[in-house]
């Protein structure tokens, strides 16, 4: 089935231009259909930078030929039957797969289309609102944009200003200009007496009262533009608002054109069916949207992790950008990510940081960071082909390789840890293990570090790195492989989906391990009811059960591609596509009640689209199938 965004109030479709980020939501708590801006962020994309009060911003519409309002919350109860009429979501999409998000919904005969975008190089958002009738009959309609502000500190004619912190200000208005009314929403739209709460530090609902306009038969009404502008001061927010309003009529076209220009850098792959072409474009778009202005890739669209810089995820995003042809973005993302690194007491690097404080923010103890750093630097450098990257980052390369070489125990494997999965370890009743993932990614990192060392004539180092990698692979073979099946760790014969990456993305495991491992994973990690692949056998989600994840499902499909089994590969790829939302976003995983978690995860989810399609088309071009 396809989900809208999504049947979980913590799932959001993102809109961003690097300066500002919006969360767009189609289901509220209790799965109530809505079309709203859930939250705006400026300037760091973490929860502390949120600009709106719950429940965000949405629209009410009165079709003058109808008995009921377009009213997602049942606010306007002027006639019997009003509460029983719910919103129906018709379609959601990123227009042409690019950075403008469109929602079409209706209630009764009233159809509302919204488009939301962030103009390039502005600290602002625009939402256009248009109305049509389902039966295509002419009518008149009144549009009422609603926004819940944290406070209002000043009103300048029909512009309202909110102060969130010393360096966070929000200015909002509509175009064409219209009266703004604060206080009780139902009274504001029906003409009743309203108590004004302006100049207040209290959360304040604001309704803009747009004069009624004609709906011309089958056509949409003229658009009403709702504009939000942020700044580090009141003056900056007002300047952003003025500049955005100056270009309001051209802004949608200009934004689409700028996204098209960026997309033209994308590597060209063989002609895809229209549906996959859309997924390809959306996934590139979302990966770009995960970059803040300074290039830092972060998690977007998912409340619990909003604003975290995960070294693994950020490097995965940076390398995906490089693989897709966006080399400038990839270099910027690489440098920004590595600028966060702080050493742990044992000399490895912490793997997660808060984007504002830049301090570590971790859930478990993982030893894979150094190997992933080496991979990320190599992947970007190998495509950009600029030795300056190696010279700039050599201290990090050297430190990472030294940590790997010096942190193996008598088994020859990297010291025990949580592996790739942060929800594993003593804090959850599990002992750390000699994880295959940690030793294997370390081995792959050493192999790539050897290539980088040779490029700058550090040949002795290169030899040392290759020897260390061979020793790690041998230790994995000795302790973590049983009858050709690669297991999770030395301590157990349980399986871990991450090992499939060492046949595809990080190809260091011998071919003879591939078939037995694929067979075992299909038997033991594939969900018996809904398909897809679990992360590993004993790992549970926050809701207490094993469930398939989008990333591991893509990984197994890629391993089948490497094994020349195209049909099996597409079985898993299509499982992911089937569970996408209508606008093309994929969940991180599915919970037990069929609810998706973590839409717009640009590392495990949307990057999986890009990487699997690249691998598929590359293998086709080499006639390997």
Automatic annotation (TrEMBL):
Coiled-coil ranges per UniProt: none
Residue ranges of domain GH15-like in the record: 350-500
Pfam families per record: Glyco_hydro_15
Entry superkingdom: Bacteria
Entry protein name: GH15-like domain-containing protein
């Amino acid at each position: 089935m396809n989900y809208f965004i999504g049947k979980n109030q913590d799932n959001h479709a993102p809109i961003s231009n690097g300066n500002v980020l919006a969360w767009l939501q189609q289901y509220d708590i209790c799965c109530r259909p809505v079309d709203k801006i859930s939250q705006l962020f400026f300037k760091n994309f973490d929860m502390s930078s949120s600009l709106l009060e719950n429940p965000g911003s949405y629209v009410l519409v009165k079709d003058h030929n109808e008995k009921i309002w377009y009213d997602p919350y049942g606010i306007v109860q002027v006639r019997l039957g009003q509460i029983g009429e719910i919103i129906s979501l018709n379609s959601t999409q990123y227009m042409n797969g690019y950075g403008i998000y469109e929602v079409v919904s209706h209630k009764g005969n009233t159809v509302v289309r919204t488009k939301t975008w962030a103009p390039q190089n502005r600290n602002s958002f625009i939402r256009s609102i248009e109305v049509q009738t389902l039966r295509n009959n002419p009518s008149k309609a009144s549009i009422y944009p609603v926004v819940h502000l944290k406070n209002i500190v000043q009103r300048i004619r029909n512009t309202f200003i909110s102060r969130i912190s010393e360096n966070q200000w929000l200015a909002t208005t509509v175009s064409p200009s219209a009266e703004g009314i604060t206080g009780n929403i139902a009274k504001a739209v029906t003409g009743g007496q309203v108590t004004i709460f302006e100049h207040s530090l209290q959360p304040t609902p604001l309704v803009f009262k747009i004069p009624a306009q004609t709906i011309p038969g089958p056509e949409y009404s003229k658009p009403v533009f709702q504009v939000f502008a942020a700044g580090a001061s009141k003056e900056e927010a007002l300047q952003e608002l003025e500049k955005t309003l100056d270009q309001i009529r051209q802004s949608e076209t200009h934004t689409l054109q700028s996204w098209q220009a960026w997309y033209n850098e994308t590597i060209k792959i063989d002609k895809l069916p229209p549906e996959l072409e859309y997924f390809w474009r959306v996934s590139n778009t979302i990966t770009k949207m995960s970059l803040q202005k300074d290039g830092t890739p972060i998690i977007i669209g998912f409340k619990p992790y909003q604003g975290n810089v995960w070294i693994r995820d950020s490097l995965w995003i940076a390398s995906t950008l490089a693989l897709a042809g966006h080399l400038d973005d990839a270099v910027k993302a690489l440098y920004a990510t590595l600028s966060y690194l702080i050493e742990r007491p044992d000399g490895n690097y912490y793997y997660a940081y808060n984007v504002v404080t830049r301090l570590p923010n971790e859930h478990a103890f993982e030893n894979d960071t150094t190997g992933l750093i080496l991979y990320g630097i190599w992947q970007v450098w190998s495509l950009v082909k600029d030795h300056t990257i190696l010279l700039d980052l050599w201290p990090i390369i050297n430190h990472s390789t030294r940590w790997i070489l010096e942190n193996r125990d008598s088994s020859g494997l990297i010291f025990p840890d949580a592996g790739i999965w942060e929800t594993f370890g003593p804090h959850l009743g599990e002992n750390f293990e000699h994880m295959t993932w940690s030793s294997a990614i370390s081995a792959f990192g050493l192999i790539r570090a050897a290539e980088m060392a040779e490029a700058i004539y550090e040949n002795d180092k290169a030899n040392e790195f290759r020897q260390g990698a061979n020793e790690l692979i041998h230790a994995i073979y000795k302790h973590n492989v049983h009858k050709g099946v690669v297991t999770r760790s030395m301590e157990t014969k349980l399986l871990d989906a991450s090992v499939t990456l060492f046949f595809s993305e990080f190809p260091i495991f011998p071919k003879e391990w591939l078939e037995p491992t694929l067979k075992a994973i299909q038997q033991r990690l594939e969900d018996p009811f809904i398909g897809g692949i679990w992360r590993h056998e004993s790992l549970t989600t926050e809701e207490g059960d094993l469930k398939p994840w989008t990333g591991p499902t893509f990984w197994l499909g890629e391993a089948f591609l490497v094994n020349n089994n195209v049909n099996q590969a597409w079985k898993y790829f299509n499982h992911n596509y089937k569970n996408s939302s209508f606008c093309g976003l994929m969940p991180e995983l599915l919970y037990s009640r069929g609810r998706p978690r973590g839409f717009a995860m640009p590392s495990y989810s949307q990057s999986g689209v890009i990487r699997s399609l690249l691998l598929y088309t590359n293998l086709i071009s080499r006639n390997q199938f």
